[in-house]
Inverse folding.
């Protein structure tokens, strides 16, 4: 992966977020890195504070779902499919630790076999479902929140 | 319950949201009704659009968690405990139908026995956990999203 490939993908996803999901501006979520396997976002604390001066649980969920949605969008784009026909069907989030600073949000690739099955299903039937997970890290790299969602891609 | 009781509670919760959770301004969530048993919020579509011109799944989650958090805050306030020491430990949301218009968000009281157990636990130990659910309705009153969260109250 070249640097220009990565920065072009990040700029593209930033535009999709800004254009299609206006709340991303209020969340101030930033697209930081994409290497073809992992997507890294950043969620600043200031705009996303709660009543205890830590990160609002709703903002953490938004960051988790955006990381997975963005991962799927970029992974499909790399496979030649430029689509936003991706919807979340269900989401679950655990909050093991409070997030007290700007947070890194990471969605890593699922097992290769999971991806292959999903991709073949989509090519055959025009519709497929995949489970994706993301983590929101505390300032010292521990899991502040762990998100898992079921995503459906349709043609 | 008198009208002034209800409107005072709604004004109070609106202030708590505005003061403590700045993202609620961007969500444009409104506190509509509280009768001592159910809390009704409103989530407008405009500020919460996604790439398919329906409600963003992250916004729906935020509305769901705010309805339950607000329900617990107001219910405790009615019981003489004015606290914001309430945190969400985990949340789950299903999205059975797209939400295509401004949405009503409802958190109804759990079973009386569940509340009594929670309240006694808090009085005895200064800490207690409760599961609360909320629904986000489509324009024709069907479930667009169903949220359930585990909330912890501590003294």
């Amino acid at each position: 992966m070249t640097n220009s490939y990565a920065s072009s993908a990040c700029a593209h996803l930033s535009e999709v977020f800004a254009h299609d999901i206006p709340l991303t501006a209020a969340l101030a979520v930033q697209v930081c890195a994409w290497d073809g396997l992992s997507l890294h976002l950043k969620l600043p604390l200031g705009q996303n504070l709660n009543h205890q001066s830590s990160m609002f649980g709703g903002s953490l969920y938004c960051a988790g779902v955006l990381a997975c949605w963005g991962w799927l969008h970029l992974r499909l784009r790399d496979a030649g499919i430029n689509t936003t026909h991706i919807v979340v069907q269900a989401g679950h989030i655990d909050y093991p630790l409070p997030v007290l600073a700007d947070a890194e949000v990471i969605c890593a690739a699922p097992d290769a076999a999971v991806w292959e099955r999903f991709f073949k299903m989509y090519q055959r039937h025009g519709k497929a479902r995949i489970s994706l997970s993301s983590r929101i890290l505390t300032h010292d790299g521990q899991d502040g929140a762990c998100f898992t969602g079921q995503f459906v891609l349709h043609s």
User: Anything to note?
Assistant: Strands of chain B lie at 30-34, 38-43, 86-94, 103-108, 127-137, 143-154.
